Amino acid sequence: YPSELLMQKITEDNQIPVHVHVSMSLQYVAGLKGRALVEFFHSNIAEVENEELRHLMWSSVLFYKTPSVEVMACVLLSTKAIYFLLDDSFIHADEHQSDFWNKENSDCENSSFHLSCCFVLKLNDLQSVNVGLFDQYFRITGHSADHIVTCLTRDSYNTHTFIQQLMAVLSLLARTPSPEPVDKDFYSEFGSKNTGKMENYELIHSSRVKFIYPNEEEIGDLAFLVAEKMDGLTNLPSLNILLYVLAFQVNHFEGSAQNTSSLQPKTLILTSSDLFLFDEDYISYPLPEFAKEPPKRDKYQLADGRRIRDLDRVLMGYQTYPQALTFVFDDVQNQDLMQNLTLDHFGE
Description:
Mean pLDDT: 81
Radius of gyration: 24 Å
CATH superfamily of the largest domain: Pleckstrin-homology domain (PH domain)/Phosphotyrosine-binding domain (PTB)
Number of strands: 15
Number of helices: 7
CATH architecture of the largest domain: Roll
Number of domains: 2
Largest sheet: 9 strands, mixed
Low-confidence stretches: 192-198, 337-343
Oligomer: single chain
Structural class: alpha+beta
């Protein structure tokens, strides 16, 4: 340890997405290669002498206590814990975090010394991993509200790779085996007697950590929700969700010193007749076991919706991933143009 293959892999993965601006401290981490990166991990991050770094990934993360603040993190998976190396500015982004983050180092703000805070989730505290629709994100759940983190990879490959690495590392943990389950039939195993609904697919790892995947009903519920937003204009049985992807909506600010743009996280859903943008809650659902009340907002909130038939053209940027798409719609306010003309020309 570490093998040449591992060092090559973490060097390749150690790249900040091009659309993200991060602090000097995280830029420093992203500049490390191979053995220097492993040594940095052992001298600055690792909590135990004999733990091994197994995987590195850059991802946006959300914390359960601060669901509105999405922040870029360097996620490091070792044989003992998952480390989230965060931008120091995140600590000051939300005034309600004072009980969540320790601010004793804030006197270093004005010096040339750049700080990062590191959130640690020990593998022994891990209880479940919820994988989002189409592997666009996953949520890691520990034993309390402080230990729930969602990684918004926006990339099924990165999600799949991390889950595979996590399962491999969990296999090394020595935990007492679970008691033998009582034999159950199919319906009592997967059905809920209260609701009659099928539960999500659950895979219980040998380390007793649950890996929970969405089932077909989740897509059905989403299709029903989308149909509701369309004011009943669409026949529900014929409504198909063709695409579900986590994206960013680009908002341009003109007139400032330099024209800047901000990225607003959105869930893009394409059906056979419409294009929707939703604000989705990626951290609160499904409800953790200790939650006393439902979250303050719904899982999906409609931000914008347009008919495909009103789509005039699609402009494509020439840059590499992430690709920028501009959808240009005809600016018709009323859905029935002829009715408007009739009223204007022949009405009173």
